[in-house]
Amino acid sequence: MTVEYDEKGKFYTDIVKKLPVSVVVQTTTHLVRGLLHVREGERLKNELERTETFLAITDASLYGADDKILFTVPFIAIQRSQIIWIMPVNSKDDNQKDLSE
Predict the structure, then answer these.
(1) Among 23, 94, 98, 99, which is least packed by CB within 10 angstroms?
(2) What DSSP state is assigned to residue 29?
(3) Distance between CA atoms of 30 and 71, rounded to whole angstroms?
(4) Residue 47 sits in a domain of what CATH number?
(5) pLDDT tens digit string along 8-23?
């Protein structure tokens, strides 16, 4: 980890703090439920507007057309061009923040 200081004493690091948000993602072929990690102080929409080709989802479950879980994985990268829609899901876990506002 690198730490840099400016002339006023403010420090900068390579670490970007993110908060997990429960989401449902509809792709062209599957429904995905999992956690999307959003930068602290930003909205879910801000994360979707980034230019990276893939969107990272953790603790993901992929569902088939029959609404049954095909498999569960700790991490999946979804190509943004394959996303039809995405929505946050209210979670009862206090560690997760609702960023749907």
Answers:
(1) 94
(2) S
(3) 11
(4) 2.30.30.100
(5) 777 666 677 889 999 9
